From TrEMBL:
Compositionally biased spans, kind Basic and acidic residues: 182-203
Region feature (Disordered): 182-206
UniProt-recorded name of the protein: IQ motif containing H
PROSITE patterns: IQ
Any single Pfam family the record assigns to this protein: ATP-grasp_IQCH
Domain IQCH-like ATP-grasp: 579-849
Superkingdom to which the source organism belongs: Eukaryota
Native organism: Xiphophorus maculatus
InterPro entries: ATP-grasp_IQCH, IQCH
Length: 972
């Protein structure tokens, strides 16, 4: 390695010359256009060959530099340190007195001319001092500056500088021979500039670099003079201010011309950090080529400021925003770059465009596939979930069906046992479980106000204990106050029965009132009483405890499926038909079928109407066939007691007078021909829709507010269209029968109905009946009972009849009285419940054979009981029963105050005379609805008493400040 320094200049010159020639060749190749004989020059192949040559030269240069850097550098000895060294200090120029730039430049040149020391050598010495090494001064020939031609691809130099203390390569004088004069002059001028700052270290200037003595950098720095240092720093600062334009160079079409003056000057000025600059310039030129930028001006000062630096040689890539910020014309460049598709016009644009298209297509394809998969997955989830729910529903439905079927089989088995032992049960001690449940449909129940009060109207079933062999357990659908409990307790005790409302039922107590605990959990659901009892296990257990070891059966209301479950839970029979049979034949349409099978005349009409067109066509046909009927009724199948009835009069039809003329023209005989009625029916069809909308009236007790609401429920649940009796005097009769399981029929009560204002609302009845002959009524009831038994109907049945005089027979001087069957209700009726209270209060009986209401006559003389029975001391009475008496002002009075008011006005019952007034209380909260019974010796007296009582009560509770709602005035 001793001979390496001898050939250092020769090797360096050859190396630099080869690199420069390769760079020049690469730059000039791009300008060659080969077009001879259609031949094409493959520039890429030549460029690859040049690059391989450059890499090979770099590798050899790297080996050479490693060998050089490992040698110890020896500086010549310095004889006079005080004269030959300068000590630099940090200089802070004064703003008031700046030195003359021209004189400093001149002095600066003279110093370097005399000492022949280059700025690169000064920086090298400063770096060597910072590293703590001893260095030797190089010969004068080795200190001459050399221009490095390979500016952008000096990877070997970059690696050496990043890993070893930087020793700058210098340009030899031979390399300057091929440069133009202007470039040589610029290069010589740049040699006189000095502006290096390595970190915060101090600058060193030597006066005798050829001294053989070896010294340290610290010794030299201590010997330097302050005046020369100040002059050097001042000249350097001013020189940088004057040559700012040297830091700017141009990039054309993404290529840097290394032969341009501005780039050579920039490279010479910042050669101390060129390794970092090269990386940034490579990224910048690549970016400009990618976006096909034709011209870009680079701000060198800003480039030096943001150049990334690393102590370990790792390359830090700048972002695009930082690279574009290096340009002086970045506004124009950014405007060009931001144009759509500009990236695809630059270097590799076709590949990028193809990649972009492929990426977009793959994204679209994958997104479409994913969405399709997602939809299918969601659909599969929905289908699987729906199928699972459907399967579970089917399983639950199947289990419920099996449970219902098992309950129905148990019901039938218990019904057979009840029928076989009915005579024994009827004559022995038994317990009757009264459940006054109204098992209507859910929509009907939800649209009914005060549903719990409607179910509790039959609280007078407690009066069944008038039979000494009967004990009653009454299931109440609401919580009763102490006032009502005390009232019924006193009423039953006064008439010879013991009572209890406690949980236990001793042997001497004969009735018990229980309220299911589910009433508190479902206060607004309007659930039927059987359902509430089903969800009340404590009440069921209490009932089981009371009936253990006793003969018991259930008497329900309107049939419901939960009746079977309650009966199955209590293991007792039900005195009534199956719920399905009750729902089939207990409707208005089912009643018409029963009456038709029994041979009983029914009003002209049509049942099972479920469609609006069917309603219009039925009405047109019925009106045309029955020209003398003035009023047509619309009844919902599930209604009871005349509630929820609408009517419409045909006199409002515009074509009715024309139809009457047609009827008189053809006569009664030809009128029933189809071809005669066809034109009238078509005329009716045109007017009936409007006629129904504007002229239909609702009953007073209807729960609907308009015809549209009524029609909606009417078509949903089905209904009946039938004629109202064509007479001014119409009497309605209600007969309650018990179809015993053994097949016998017992008539429990009968009476004429008491109607309200519109003759459709049933508010009460008169006992006994007076409008129909007893034998005729008995015959009708037996025929209806027989048909009911044929249709598996058992238990309590209520038959509604209408009697009137047919005016069409008046011309024949024969008064023919007609009886129409209009209602058939399956279940315990409100009239029968109130009749039980009348019989309990008076101690009387209804004699079916005589048709009289008989009560024991009070015995005035002292005689034995046997003598009284032998004389048959009985007397007849008449009773007027008001079941649904409503007055809104009744809620202002508590029941105790109400009875005091009645007693003050002599409204009370005389037990000795068996006449007077008895009240039935239904609820403790609202207290707006009551029942009243007026008993008298004759019918006229009973009606007068009933009317006077209502008038007195109305006057007592009348308020001028509050508008009341009542039906008292209609009955007064």
């Amino acid at each position: 390695m001793a001979d390496i320094p001898k050939h250092e200049d020769a090797f360096e010159d050859v190396l630099v010359q080869v690199q420069h020639n390769l760079s020049q060749l690469k730059y000039n190749i791009g300008k060659i256009n080969v077009g001879e004989k259609g031949a094409t020059l493959d520039i890429k192949v030549l460029d690859n060959a040049i690059c391989r040559t450059q890499h090979s030269i770099r590798r050899h240069a790297d080996d050479y530099l490693k060998s050089v850097n490992k040698q110890q550098l020896v500086l010549p000895a310095i004889e006079d340190l005080q004269k030959q060294t300068l000590k630099l200090h940090k200089w802070k120029p004064s703003i008031e007195s700046l030195p003359d730039v021209y004189s400093q430049r001149k002095t600066f040149d003279v110093v370097f001319h005399e000492r022949k020391v280059k700025p690169e050598a000064v920086e090298s010495l400063a770096v060597a001092k910072a590293k703590g090494k001893r260095v030797q001064y190089l010969p004068e020939d080795e200190l001459q500056p050399v221009i490095k031609p390979n500016l952008l691809r000096m990877s070997a130099q970059h690696n050496v500088m990043s890993l070893q203390p930087r020793l700058e390569l210098h340009f030899s004088k031979k390399e300057l021979d091929f440069k133009p004069d202007k470039e040589s002059k610029c290069q010589m001028d740049s040699e006189t500039r000095l502006g290096r700052k390595v970190g915060e270290s101090e600058h060193l200037v030597t006066s005798s670099p050829s001294l053989p003595t070896q010294i340290t950098v610290s010794d030299i720095m201590d010997q330097m003079e302050i005046q020369d240092t100040t002059s050097f720093v001042t000249k350097e600062t001013e020189d940088q201010s004057a040559d700012v334009h040297i830091s700017t160079f141009t990039i054309v079409k993404g290529q840097i011309d290394p032969m341009t003056k501005d780039f050579i000057c920039f490279k010479e000025k910042f050669s101390w950090c060129w390794s970092s600059v090269v990386d940034v310039l490579e990224d910048l030129t690549k970016l400009l080529r990618e976006f096909a930028v034709p011209l870009a001006k680079v701000d060198g000062e800003h480039l030096i400021q943001i150049c990334p630096s690393s102590d370990y040689g790792w390359r830090k890539t700048l972002s695009k925003a930082n690279l574009f910020s290096l340009l002086e014309n970045k506004g124009d460049v950014l405007e060009l770059v931001s144009r759509p598709g500009q990236r695809y016009r630059g270097e590799g644009g076709r590949d990028v465009a193809a990649t972009r298209i492929q990426a977009c297509w793959r994204r679209y394809f994958n997104r479409t596939s994913y969405l399709c998969y997602h939809r299918r997955k969601k659909a599969a989830e929905v289908i699987s979930l729906s199928w699972l729910l459907h399967y579970q529903r089917c399983q639950v439905k199947k289990a419920l069906q099996e449970k219902r079927f098992r309950q129905l089989e148990n019901y039938r088995n218990r019904a057979e046992h009840l029928a076989a032992n009915w005579k024994h049960i009827r004559s022995s001690k038994r317990t009757i479980i009264h459940i006054p449940s109204l098992g209507f449909s859910q929509s009907w129940r939800q649209n009914t106000r005060k549903y719990d009060i409607l179910q509790n109207i039959q609280i007078t079933r407690l009066c069944d204990i008038r039979d000494e062999n009967v004990e009653v357990i009454y299931i109440c659908p609401m919580r009763l106050g102490e006032d009502i409990l005390q009232y019924y307790d006193n009423f039953l005790r006064r008439n010879g029965a013991d009572s209890s409302t406690s949980q236990d039922l001793p042997c001497n107590k004969r009735f018990l009132i229980l309220t299911p605990e589910a009433v508190d959990h479902f206060p607004t659901r309007n659930m039927c009483l059987s359902t509430l009892l089903k969800y009340s296990p404590c009440t069921l257990k209490q009932i089981k405890r009371q009936i253990r070891g006793k003969q018991a059966y259930i008497v329900g209301g309107v049939g419901h499926e939960d009746d079977l479950e309650v009966a199955d839970e209590l293991d007792v029979p039900v005195l009534g038909p199956e719920p399905a049979v009750s729902q089939l034949h207990g409707t208005k349409s089912g009643g018409r079928r029963i009456f038709s099978e029994a041979g009983l005349e029914v009003p002209p009409g049509q049942g099972d109407v479920y469609a609006l067109n069917q309603l219009h066509e039925t009405l047109a046909e019925l009106i045309a066939q029955n020209i003398h009927i003035q009023r047509w009724l619309f009844k919902i199948n599930m209604q009871r007691g005349g509630r929820d009835t609408a009517y419409c009069d045909v006199c409002h039809l515009r074509c009715y007078s024309w139809a009457l003329q047609r009827y008189q023209h053809f006569g009664p005989d030809l009128w029933h021909a189809v071809w005669v009625q066809e034109t009238v029916m078509l005329k009716y069809l045109e007017e009936i829709p409007e006629w129904l909308i504007y002229y239909t009236q609702l009953s007073e007790s209807s729960r609907f507010q308009s015809w549209s609401e009524f029609l909606k429920i009417f078509l949903r649940q089905g209904g009946v269209v039938e004629a109202y009796p064509p007479s001014e005097n119409v009497t309605h009769v209600t007969v309650d029968m018990l179809l015993e399981p053994s097949g016998e029929v017992t008539i429990q009560s009968w009476g004429d109905q008491l109607h309200g204002y519109c003759h459709l609302d049933i508010v009460g009845s008169i006992i006994p009946k007076t409008s129909v002959h007893l034998e005729t009524l008995h015959s009708i009831c037996m025929r209806v009972a027989y048909v009911c038994q044929q249709n598996c109907i058992m238990g309590y049945v209520s038959v509604g009849l209408a009697t009137f005089v047919d005016h069409s027979t008046m011309k024949q001087k024969v008064r023919l009285k007609k009886i129409w069957g209009i209602d058939l209700d399956i279940g315990f009726s409100d009239q029968l419940a109130m009749t039980q209270m009348v019989l309990m209060a008076t101690g009387g009986t209804l004699d079916w054979h005589t048709g009289c209401f008989e009560v024991p006559m009070p015995v005035k003389e002292k005689c034995s009981e046997q003598e009284a029975l032998a004389k048959h001391l009985v007397d007849s009475r008449y009773a007027v029963i008001g079941i649904h008496l409503f007055h809104s002002n009744l809620s202002m009075l508590y029941h105790s105050m109400f009875f005091k008011m009645c007693k003050f006005n002599c409204i009370e019952f005389n037990k000795k005379e068996n006449q007077g007034t008895v009240f039935a209380l239904y609820d403790s909260s609202e207290r707006c609805t009551i029942g009243m019974i007026a008993v008298s010796e004759d019918l006229q007296g009973a009606l007068v008493t009933f009317a006077q009582n209502l008038s007195v009560i109305h006057q007592e509770i009348l308020s001028s400040k509050k508008e009341e709602e009542t039906n008292f005035e209609v009955l007064c």
